[in-house]
Amino acid sequence: MTVQPQADTAEKLVGGTLGERIRTFADGPLFRGDAEVLHGPNPYRRMLFPAALAEADFGRPLGAGDWPAHRSLAAHRLLGTWYEAETVLLPEQGLAGLHDDFDLFYGRDLRELREGAVSELERFAFGCLDDAVDVSGAATPEVLDAYFQHVVAEAAAGPSPALAAVAGARDRESAADLYLVQLALDGLTEASAMSRNLAGAYGPEQSALFKIFIDEFGYGVYDAKHTTIFAKMLRSRSMATHVHAYWNFYLTGPLATNNYYYYLSRDHAKFFRYAGAVTYAEAVFAPAFVEMVKVFRDIFGDAVDLHYCDEHAHIDEHHGRITREQVLLALAERHGPRVVPELMRGVAEARLVGGWFEEDTAAQIRWADDLPRHRDLAGAAQVTGTRRVVLTPGSPFGTRCHDDDTVLEIERGEADLITTPTGAPERLGRGDAVLIPAGRLYGAKPAGAETVCLLHTAAPG
What is the dihedral of CA 325, 327, 330, 334, to 10 degrees? Predict the structure, then answer.
């Protein structure tokens, strides 16, 4: 007698639709969330909001203007989780009590689900860049360098929209903390994507990239590692320092920006594109951190530890020179005109995706800082559809956004509207309503035994 093994869930769904595979992954016990607003010191658990995923259409790829959409947020939360499953995450306090979560996060079932879907989800999330960026024209090192110098000078000349929003906020401390959280997405796992481009053999350019990598890791000295000094900055603001404590507050634009470098690094056919992207990033980091130091010193004085920013403002000038001269232009000279369009595309895409970071962060700060006005706007909105959401004290807390302007109204009970990681929540009682603009991130937490929320889709205009 021959016994046929039963196919497990992952095997059954490897051939399912992208949406089916995603929802199966997100419905796992690691990703359902709990009632807490912040995630505890467990890097394997993060809220993927399975209930909201049911609304997302993964059969229609994102267009260039769709990056703030709800399905974009969902896709980038998933991609970030999948990319990190290819890195080593261990909790600082040790694995005691978390061995089962470790085994599940890195185990066969979830691995097969993500490996069977990651390329398709990448095309869904980043395929729009193919049409959004045009790199036609002469393919010479001179043209590449001229374009690179132009876009870097442009970035250095203008103020950061996100930092301008921080500086102009009424509650500048909460706005600054929200900005820090977006940096924490990379700052607590810094250079993880870069590490995937260090193996192999590709000459002096490989050594140049490795110089930057070992700088990020403090030349083997843990106290000098950039993630360590980033944690000091968070600690000076009395913020949590474990990986993804603020998972619920990562915005779509910053998630996409972080994922972009993993996306390029996972596929070595995109190596030259990665080289262009990392060169652009290193060149614009230094002036951005100089601006951040000015804004944060004006808000906090000496009460905030800005060692991380000072370090990057200094060392990224050096990294910018290395990547331009010893990586970008060296690769163009060594490998000829055929690689120049890919190098240039990397520069252009990094510039575009970096703009998503700035635009999204600035918009979230401005909205969260102006909720009284959005209460007034809710009263004037014309609504076209309504759905009811029931929250209880045990309901998992998660954040989401909507594709359309949405009015959140409390039909029964009370709820706290949470829009920033450290700011005071906005208490909403029975009959209260607030307008949530399309793309803005929020969560609602019940303040009593049970709260009933109404979500009204607002008519355009």
Answer: 180
**How many beta carbons lie within 10 A of that of residue 241, not counting itself?**
17
Print burial letters for 190-203: b (CB count within 10 Å at least 16), e (below 16): bbbbbebbbeeebe
Alpha-carbon span 386 to 300, nearest angstrom: 43
Domain spans in the chain, listed from the N-terminal domain onward: 9-126, 135-368, 371-458
Listing DSSP states for 264-303 in one string gives: HHH-GGGHHHHHHHHHHHHHHHHHHHHHHHHHHHHHHGGG
Tokens of 332: 């163009």
Encoded tokens for 360: 């999204």
| 51 vs 368: CA distance, rounded Å | 24
CATH superfamily of 135-368: Heme oxygenase-like (1.20.910.10)
**Total H helices, total E strands in the chain:** 19, 7
- Determine the pLDDT at residue 112: 97
* CA–CA distances in Å: residue 241 to residues 41, 111, 129, 187: 9, 27, 33, 10
Which tokens sit at 397? 């807390």
* Length of the chain in terms of residues written: 461
Q: What would the DSSP string read from start to end of 120-162?
A: HHHHHHHTTHHHH----S---HHHHHHHHHHHHHHHHHSPPHH
What 3-state class would DSSP assign to 246?
coil
CB 431 within 8 A of CB 451: no
Sole residue written with tokens 């507050």:
249
pLDDT greater at residue 88 or residue 51: 88
The answer to whether the 135-368 and 371-458 domains have the same CATH topology is no
CATH code of domain 371-458: 2.60.120.10
Give the pLDDT confidence score for residue 137 in this predicted structure. Answer: 87
Q: Is residue 169 pLDDT above 50, yes or no?
A: yes
Whether residue 53 has pLDDT greater than 60: yes
Residue 9: per-residue pLDDT: 47
